[in-house]
# Entry
Amino acid sequence: MKRLFRCLTHVLFSVLLMQALPTQAGDTGTFDAIEAKAVRAVIEAQLAAFAADDGPRALSYAFPDIRKRFPAPEGFLEMVRKSYPVVYRPRSVGFLEPELEGDEVFQAVEMSDADGVLWVAIYRMGRAEDGSWRIMGCRVVPGGGSAI
# Structure
């Protein structure tokens, strides 16, 4: 029963999330599995860098505009530690389906914090000049439950 409730919560949240995201002119929808895997790999790599307290590596996955705002990687690491504690040290991580909006991708990631409280981190991803995916921003919203 608990698993069914969690599944229904995921579906409801995904529907609400997609209705709340701003729309842009251009293509919307899903994109191919190779691109989805590339987006996921960037987020996973940044989470691994946070786990290792590796500020330079964590910042390297950010879009150039973010890197300009944080000339010292330690400042970036400190900002994430204070403002996004669940992203800095998630207890669990689960990726939802990415959504393509124009030339950006929104990747929702369900995370639980140290207390088992669920959160959803919505990553805004864009392509850097070299064609790689980079993190343009992240918004964390309550996930409405507990992972316990």
Q: What stands out?
A: The chain has a mean pLDDT of 84. Helices lie at 2-20, 33-51, 55-60, 64-69, 73-83, 85-88. The domain at 30-146 is CATH 3.10.450.630 (Nuclear Transport Factor 2; Chain: A,). Residues 2-20 form the longest helix (19 residues).
